[in-house]
Design goal:
By secondary structure, the chain is of the alpha+beta class. The protein contains eleven helices and 19 strands.
Length: about 375
Amino acid sequence: MKNSAMVMTIQDPASQRLTWYKPPLTVLVIKKVRDVSVLQPFVQLVNWLIEEKHMVVFVEQTVMDDTLLVNNPSFSVVKDKLMTFRDGKDDLTDKIDFIICLGGDGTLLYASLLFQQSVPPVMAFHLGSLGFLTPFEFDNFQEQVTNVLEGHAALTLRSRLRCIIMRKNDELSKSSKPPTNLLVLNEVVIDRGPSPYLSNIDLFLDGKHITSVQGDGLIVSTPTGSTAYAVAAGASMIHPSVPAIMVTPICPHSLSFRPIVVPAGVELKISVSPDSRNTSWVSFDGRNRQELFHGDSLRVTTSIYPVPSICAQDQISDWFDSLAECLHWNVRKRQKHLDELSDLTHSSSNDTLDSLDHTDQLDS
């Protein structure tokens, strides 16, 4: 094309590599709560990071209150060397260079929740139930962490959704109270809550009314969240590098309401229909559940702050391995090839009507 502005440039996902502008000095270790099996790997990792790598290790204060951990002799050696923080009280912005998660997918979602702006690179070890977002095995953690600290790793930039609740009462009273503003990694869900009536939700895209949803609710998800609640509700699975927002109805009272994918960057507005019999409820990555009343609205768009997730191999291999191992995608018995069916084919071709009649005469 003559006009260079009309030529689209598509970035190769393989070009997204981890680059440290300075050697990482501080690391946040997030472990799965109420899981005894994670305690020993946690102690091994923390000891190694402090003694071998000479890093400053941050953990949540609740970790230090775990009696099983406190009574561990190996942990007492490094206990006093750990830095602690409290969720909701201490600000970790610009304090953490690197995050290591030990557990399931929930640990990565928690890391996303802790950083509501820029997120440090996250390395997630599979020590939980599903492990779709946690590609690393803990067996040789020393070698794997060293490779990451030296910058030998691929990245997946997982987009997040910026969600803002606009309250009707706040708009009328011109309240100075800031609106609810959250970043979610998986999805925001709007449902009917405890009400027996169908949800009636109006959906707008960039200010234009698209449709009204009648059913149990609506899921607005990132590509990362497409393999979570959305796929259970019948949506397609989207690779996390695809810039998109998914809109999936929950049990729609319509045979033709299919999940849709819209471009990243558009703004979705979701509100309770004026003639709806009931209110709606909204939750963000399964947390902060609250009620949406008539006149309230939820604004959702793509955040400028993604979660840089470190790959065990590369973007493509990690994702398809997770589909195969966690969701058993396209698992079925193989169709037999023709050689295995040859005996059956030959026998059936020789069974003519004449031969069958001759066999009957001999039997009689």
